[in-house]
Structures are given as structure tokens and as C-alpha cells.
Amino acid sequence: MSKNNIGLQALAVTFSMFQVGSTTLFFLGSQAKQDAWLAMLLGAAAGLLLLAMYLGIHHLDARYDLYELNKVYFGKIIGSIFGLAFIAYFTYEASRNLRDLSELTVATLLNRTPLSVVAAIALLVIANCVRYGPKINFLTCIALLPIMILGYGSLVVLILTTGVAHFEFMQPILENGFKPVWDAAIPEIISFPFGQAVLFLAFFSLVTDKKNLNKAMTLTYCGVAILLTLFNQLIVLVLGPELAAICTYPLLEVVQIIQMTRVFERADALFTLILFIGIGTKAILFYAGAVIGLQRIAWLKYKIWVIPLGIVIYAVSFISPTYTEFVWIGLHLTVTKVWPIFQMALPALLFVVMLLRKKKRAEGGSKSGG
Amino acid sequence: MFQLLRLLLGFSRQINQNRNRPAHSGQTSLPTDIQPGALPVDLEDKISHLQNRMGGSSDFVIRKISSSSSAGPAIAISYIEGLVDIHRLSIIMEALVNSSRNELGDSLRAEGWIKEHLPVGSIHMLHTENHLLRSVLGGNAVLMIDGLRTAFSANIAGGARRSVEEPSSQTVIRGPKEGFTEDIAVNLALLRRKIRSPDLRLESRILGRYTQTQVTVAYIKGVANPEVVQEISSRLDSIHTDSILESGYIEEFIQDGVISPFPTLYNTERPDTVAGGLLEGLVAVFVDGTPFALIAPVTFFRFIASSEDYYQRYDISSFLRLVRFAAFFVALLLPAVFIATTTFQQEMLPTTLLITLAAQRENTPLPALMEALIMELTFDLIREAGVRMPRAVGPAISIVGALVLGQAAVQAGIVSAAMVIVVSFTAICNFVLPAINMSASIRLLRFMLMILAGNFGLFGILAGIIPILLHLTSLQSFGIPYMMPLAPFKFANFKDLFFRAPWWKMKNRPELIGKENMQRAADEPAAYAEKAVDHKRDSLK
Fold it and tell me: Most buried residue, B71, B149, B359, B536, by most Cβ within 10 Å?
């Protein structure tokens, strides 16, 4: 019972929370303006192909996680280098989430507390979570899911019932043709958030019940993609495309516009906590994925690796001097130039190598058999 | 002396039924006739040996019935004053004095004679001095006969005991009003009266080198998970201690070895709670000398439920259960949220309320966090005083608590009225929880969350809750995840979680705790009768 295995339920729930993660913090597809929802759906559809590839990689050799696959199929040296590259990628993503979380805290909840203190506390909490190992993290996600559903569900209900949504903001559809939608979606929206599912290659091998893995992952993915599109579009409906594109935290602006008189003057502080849960989950999972990788590459215990990696994450999160630059790197630079390497090129290479090896093995098997 | 204790311990192991013995108890397999400390033949020798061993304790009585040639060999009866039932003792004495004892020449005939002449239910033959002493200390009268290497014990345990009363710690409005007592035999009988099935199994062992306390594991065979029974038994066997005075000792020894503020065993004074637990597949541990029995494995949600939930109408008890869940969160979070909102996130409050609060706080000297900490500590002091104080001074404490620390403190401008309301509401919510050990852990965590909230607002509260939640998810009680059925998610168990489904809806026992025999409602009553017959047949073999 204490074994490090993950049930399918926990995997699906965690995957959905991971996908929601920090996505709702930003307005995605701002280039497409009121057609952001089309861009989101396009990005999600392309992301589904990536997910299919990740699942394909896993099913070709279900015994291993991402790092072991790299080692087995690329050889020890190249595999380790690729593994380290993935560790660096996951570490950087975790540090991004940490920075997002701390900036959000400083902006909304704790105006006078220094960013470094907030980040340190957040990192302590996150590292403590990672220390328990992936199994407990995944289980905890199940316990947190009701809070997320309650938060986002009541947000949707309130937006639709208080009459702050203006459906005319969605029109005209495809005002400037299909090109802005395509530009917004590819590769930005694929890389963030959908392509980040590559992380789960590190966790698939821990799942015990693999019979319905494809179905569960695909259904979860589709459901979450539609929900994310909905939230993204709600921002447009409430704020309008122009305002949505320039807000730092558009969804929080939306929450502030909703007013339930005499109950909560401003519910955005509470909603920030919901956002925290999503961002925190994402940070924890990236962190855990990187720790699993370090554990595979250098044979030290999982719990020991948590500490040095935490220090690295903390340091890396302060590389960008301003939040504006940080967001620009995250939403514009890396998504087009860097993330596709990790989310598409390397997995595709791995997939091809695995297929070739399998074919070779099959031929070799038939030869020896015949 | 140490030798003796080891022997006593060895003997205690011998009588327990458990198969999973640790390696060190191998010494118990010595044949009885070559055991050291065998009884001397001569009666006077026996008496002097015993007197020596007991150090001439004043409550240790040896009554010699002198021999005469016609009446057979001399005999002596020894017992501890106060541990035996005087009435039955006098009956035995009478039988011994009045009948002819010519047949007491050898052990076998003597046993026959005693069983025939003494009106006592349980009579055992004893071979060694240690057995004899244990028997005397356990409340038996021991019969020693001149010329025999054996002695006989007659169980006439009695003496002053508290009778069965209404439990003082877990009261209900509807439901049985009897509670356990300090006598384990009475407690087990109370349980037997609730579950009249041959499948109710009781396994006893003696723990504690000095206290020699009887500890009994109770479970229903075929319902309880055998692995859990095995685990509890082996953990009990690995206890090495001088003394077991209360089930709290056992709880700390056998609970899953993590540092945690949360209890992983449920303690109760109520036979119906124990019976209900056993019928769900749990295992109970009774300890002699305390009215509190332990139930394991338990999940977090059992501490929110009350046995009364199952006696009242399901809609009412579902509502009450939800109220209790709300109370749990209020007791844990209310002071922290109050501190966070008044100190950091004032914008969350409605403007009118904010103005009222601000006007109150204007006169108070301390920051909200300090004020809350002081008030909470004060309340804990009052509560502690309420438990310890003599009954006669009760009203004095209530006056001090209610007037001086409440109204007068507010009027004097030392604390704000809102804070008094928050603290007292929290205290009330804390008492709503039926399990005292759970509300105690909330009390501890509340302070932690208050300090975090006072320094970091809502962010601090979240930073406090997430580790608590992770800790809860990682906890296990005898292999069962503590947050079952929420994480891992088991929808079937939700029938008896936040709501209680009506009994006719709960056909199955909760999953994972009782794996074996999931059906709770017997579709064919014949099945049970058949099983009972099978058991009888088995026991006859």
C-alpha cells in the first residue's frame, strides 16, 4: 500500500488540475482578439496530437519513464544529456510558476511583503509537498479538486447571472480572416499550456491501472481544453478584447467586476487562493518531475534531491528583473523558440527511434523465429 | 527478580492465542514440570515461600485449615483481600471445612474432589510458584494441599467495582445510555450483548511487566480484514513496557509511526460505537482498567461522525453531520480568517461591517493577532480550569470567565467585542466535534494558522492548510489511507460520509476496511444460520 503507484482517477484529476494550472492567470490568444476561443480550440486540437504522441511513446515501452526511455533508446551519454535537458526544462517551468505565484501574491494579497520572502514561503510549502512523493501529491489533488470546481463553477455562474458578460464582444467572428487565429494558436497556445503535458511522460510509468489510460487522458484533456477555452473567452465577454489584452491578471479583473452587494465586496482575494492552488499544483508537478529525473540520472534518494533543486528553482525564478519581462519571456519568447524543442522535437525523435527499434526488433524476431 | 518477570512475561505470552510471535518469546516452550520455581511438597514450605515472595504484604491472606487424621491432609487457601468476592469465598471455606478431605492424596484425585465439592465455575491446576502468584494477584483464591506439588485456583474475583453508568464523555440524546466501566470483563460482556454471534472473536493477552494488564482484541471473523487483525496483534506483541494503565498507552505504542497531530485510533466509552465499528469491519482493543476502548483502522471522517447519526432519521443526521463538518472548518479557520481579513484583506468585508470592526478596534491596544492569541489561550486556560477544579468552585470560575474575561475586558478596552465573539464561536464549534482527540488536534493547528494569518494573511492560511492536507493524505491507519474515501476516491463509501444514506440504501459495508464479506443486508437470512451451524460443526471437531 505504501508503494509509489498512482491510480487512474488520481492521474486524471491531477492532469486536469495541471492543465488548468496557471493558464487561467493569463489571457491567451490575445492576437486573435475576440476569436481567442478559436485560437484556443485550434491550439488544443494540435495539443491533442502531441498528447497522442506522448501516449504512443508510453505504450511502446510502458516500463520506463521519460528519463529511462531516453537512456534506453539514445544510449547512456546522449540519453543522460537529453534527460538533463528535460530536467532543466521542468526546473525552469517550476521556477516560472513560483515567480507567477509570488508576483500574484504581492500584487493582490501582500502589497508590502518583499517578493523574496513570499517566494521563499511558497517554495517551502511546495518543496514540502514534493517531499511526500508523487503518489501523495496526486492523491492530494483529488482532495483539492472540489475546491477548484467550486471556485471556477461559482465564477461562471456569477458571470452569467450578474449580467456582466457582453456577448456582442465576441462579434464579429473572424474579422481579419483566419490568419491571426492561426498565428495566435501555433505555436504559442500549443506550447502553453497544452504541450506541457510532456511532463506526464515522467509519471505514466507510475500508473498502475493502464487499461483505460488512453481514454482517461484523452477525455480529461478534451474536457479541460473546452473549460479553458470557456474561461479564456469569459475574459473577452466581460472585459472586451482590447482591455483583456492589456490587463496583467485579466481573470482577477473579471472577478472584481462581479459584485455581490453586502456579501463580499471583493471576492478576488478568495479567487486568488483558487489560482494559487492551480499554480502551486503545476509547480509541484514540474518540481517532482525534475526530481524524478535527477534521481534517475544520479543515484541519490528522491527526498535528498528536493533540497538542492529547490534552491535552484528559487534562484532561477529571480532571473528576470521585472515581471513584465518575465511574462514576455514566458508568453512570447520561450513558447515559440524553446518549448517546441522539448514538447515536440525531442519527443518526436524519441518516438521515431522507438518505432524504428521496434520494427527492427520485430524483424529480428521474425528472422530468428523463421 | 528479573528472572521472575521474564517468566511472568513468558507465561502471559503462552496464554495468548496469537500465532505471530516475535522470536524472543521462544523461552515459553519449556515443559511445565521442569520449570524453575516448582512448588515444594510441604505445605509449610509453600506458605513460607509465598510469604517471602509477597514480602509479607498485609493484604495477602493465607488461611490454613489444619489437619486432623480423620479429615485428610492439611490445606491452605490464599487470596488477596479486596480482589475476591467475600461471599463466594465464605462458601468455599465452608465447603472445605465441612467435608472430609481423605481423597486429596494425589493431584488427579484432588482435582476431581475439588471440582466436585467447591461450588465455583472455573478451577485450574497450577504447577509453579509463578503461576500461583499470578493467579492470586489476578483475583483468584488458591488452594494448596500438603503433600502435593500442585495447587488449584478457583476464580472468585470480585470486590468493589464501578457499575455500568451513562458515558460521561460521549453523550447522546437517542441511543443506548450505557458506557464501559473499568472492568474489562464487564466491557466485553456489554459488547457480547450487542453482537450475539459466534463470529465475534476476542483474543486476550497480558501486557505490562508490573501491571499485568489484560488487553483484548475484538473483531468479527469474516467481516474484519484479517491483515488488519494480524497487524494489530503483531503490534501489540511488540509492546515492551512496565505498565499499561490506560488505552492511551496502547494507542501510542501501536499507532502508525509518524509524528502527527491527528489521531489514527478512535477511542470511545460507548459499547454501541464499538459494535458499530466492528460490524463495519474494524478491530477493537479493550484494556483492563479503563472505560475507553480503541477502534482501528479509522479514517478522518469517523471523527466527524457520531454514533447517534445512525439512530436518528437519516435526513436529520445528514444535516447534523454537515453542521459538524462546517464546525470543523470554523473551529480550525475562523480566528485565522478573522485575523487575515481585518489585518490584510479588509476589502473582502462589506463596508458597514468593516466600519463597525474598525471602530471597535480603534480603542484596543494590541494587534489582532496578539489579541486573538491571548483570547484563545485564555479560553484554553478556562477550559483546563473547568476540568480540574473541584465541583464546588465551579460557579466562581464561570463568573470570572463570563464576566471578567468577556464583558468587562471589552468594556475596559482591552479586547474588541468582535474578537470575543470570534473566540467564543470557535470554542463552541470545537465542542461540536464528537471526538475529543480530534478537537484537541484542531486546537493545536488553529494556533499555527493564526500565527501564519497574522503574518501573511490569506496567503499564510493557504500556506498552512496545504501542508496539513498533504499530511492528512499521507497518513495511514493500519494500512488504510486516512483520507479514504475522498483521496483515494471511493464513490461507494460516500453513502456514509457527508450525508448518511438511509439504512436500506447502505447494503454494503464501506469498501477497503472490510474486504471479505461486503454484504451488510442479508438477502437470504438462511445464509447466516447456515454459517452458524458450520461454525458449531468446526468447533466440535
Answer: B71
